[in-house]
Design a protein that fits this description.
2 domains, alpha+beta, globular, about 40% helix, Aminopeptidase
C-alpha cells in the first residue's frame, strides 16, 4: 500500500500532532485517562461507596480478605466484574484495557473491620521475553517453562488515599506474591508457579517504585528494554484505522485474526507513511516524532518474587511498615481523608 503525497503528509501530521503533546509517559497516561473519564456520569450508589474511607483506623487494627472476582455476568456475588472494573477505572491513573487475551485471574481485597475495598489486582500470562529475567537466570528460558512457572501482576491498584496513608500498594504487592495466589492460579490453570513478576508503571523516570523496599518478598533485579511507542487511544485509533482501510481499498491493514492487532496495525501505518512520503523535511520530522514517541515508554523496573510467604506473614510484615507511615503522617497532620477518584474535571496526582 502507498499513500498519495497529500495523504502521506496528512497521516504524518496525525502522528506528529498526537505525540508531540507528551514529554513523559505520565503525560500520555494522564491525557488518555482524562479523555476517557469525560462524559462519565456519577452514581448515587457508585463503586466508590465501597471504598475504604475510615482513615482514623490504625494499621495494627486492620485485617484483610482476598476475594476472587466472579466474572459470570449473571452472578449475584458482590465481588463481581463490575466492582472490579469500576474500582480500576475510578482509581488507576493508567487507562485500563478490559479485553486482554490469555490467562486472567482477578482479586478484590477487602479490609474486614470496615468491610470496604482497599484495592484490586489482576494476574495474567507473563511476558514472553524479558531482559531482566534472562539476565537473572543466565539464559532465555523455554516458553513452556515461562508459561508453567511464571505469572505477571498487571494491575496492582490500591484505592486512594488508602494507598497513600497506609502503603496500600505495597500491601497488595505482598499479597500478590504470596502462597495464596500460587495455589489459586495452579488450581485454575494447572500450572506449577515458581515466580511472580511485575514491573513499575512509570518506568525509570521516577527512579523509585511502590515495589521498592519489599525484600525478601519482591526484589528489583533489573530494568526492561523498551523500543515501542504508546498507541493511539480509543476513537483516535479507530478513526485513523478506518481512514487507512479506506485508502487500502477497504481491506484491513492487518488480518482480524492476528494477535496484538493494535500494535501491529500502528507499526504498519508507520511503515506505509515512511514509504509514501516524498517530502524530505516532512519525513525527517516524522521520524523524529516516532523516536520521541518511543522514548516515552522507556525502561521499566522489573521485580521478582517466589511465593515463599503466606498472606498472614506478609500482612504482619506490612503492619510494621504501614504503622510507621501512618503515625508519621498523623504527627505531621498529612493524613488524607477524602476519597480520590477519577471523574470529569478531575486532575489527580499520579501516584498509582
Amino acid at each position: 500500500m502507498k499513500l498519495s503525497e497529500s495523504d502521506a503528509v496528512y497521516a504524518a501530521n496525525k502522528f506528529i500532532d498526537y505525540y508531540t503533546q507528551f514529554n513523559r509517559i505520565d503525560d500520555y497516561l494522564r491525557f488518555v485517562k482524562k479523555d476517557r473519564i469525560q462524559g462519565r456520569t456519577g452514581s448515587l450508589f457508585g463503586a466508590d461507596t465501597e471504598f475504604f474511607d475510615s482513615f482514623d483506623i490504625h494499621p495494627n487494627d486492620m485485617n484483610f480478605e482476598i476475594h476472587v472476582v466472579d466474572t459470570n455476568p449473571k452472578t449475584t456475588s458482590r465481588y463481581n466484574q463490575w466492582l472490579y472494573s469500576e474500582t480500576l477505572n475510578l482509581t488507576a491513573s493508567n487507562p485500563i484495557e478490559e479485553a486482554i487475551p490469555g490467562r486472567t485471574h482477578k482479586w478484590i481485597v477487602v479490609e474486614t473491620k470496615t468491610d470496604k475495598v482497599v484495592g484490586v489486582v489482576r494476574f495474567g500470562s507473563p511476558t514472553i521475553n524479558s531482559k531482566p529475567r534472562n539476565d537473572y537466570f543466565g539464559e532465555v528460558l523455554p516458553l513452556s517453562d515461562i508459561n508453567a512457572h511464571f505469572v505477571m501482576g498487571f494491575n496492582i491498584v490500591p484505592t486512594q488515599p488508602f494507598g497513600f496513608n497506609y502503603l496500600g500498594g505495597k500491601l497488595l504487592a505482598l499479597l500478590a506474591s504470596s502462597k495464596e495466589l500460587k495455589q489459586q492460579f495452579d488450581d485454575k490453570y494447572g500450572t506449577d508457579l515458581k515466580y511472580f513478576e511485575t514491573t513499575s508503571l512509570y518506568g525509570t523516570t521516577k527512579g523509585v517504585s511502590m515495589y521498592d523496599g519489599l525484600k525478601p518478598f519482591l526484589r528489583h533485579i533489573g530494568d526492561t528494554e523498551s523500543n515501542f511507542l504508546p498507541l493511539f487511544h480509543d476513537d483516535e485509533f479507530r478513526d485513523f484505522f478506518w481512514w487507512f482501510n479506506e485508502r487500502n481499498g477497504g481491506e484491513r491493514l492487518i488480518p482480524a485474526d492476528k494477535s496484538s492487532k493494535k500494535l501491529k496495525i500502528q507499526v504498519k501505518m508507520i511503515s506505509i507513511i515512511r514509504n509514501s512520503l516524498q517530502d524530505v523535511e516532512k519525513l525527517k520530522q516524522f521520524n523524529e516524532c516516532i523516536e520521541h514517541a518511543k522514548s516515552l515508554t522507556e525502561k521499566k523496573r522489573y521485580y521478582l518474587g517466589d511465593f515463599r510467604h503466606t498472606t498472614e506473614e506478609v500482612i504482619e510484615w506490612w503492619k510494621k511498615k504501614a504503622s510507621k507511615r501512618y503515625e508519621k503522617l498523623k504527627s505531621e497532620n498529612r493524613v488524607r481523608t477524602q476519597l480520590e477518584i477519577w471523574q470529569p474535571g478531575a486532575d489527580l496526582e499520579i501516584i498509582r
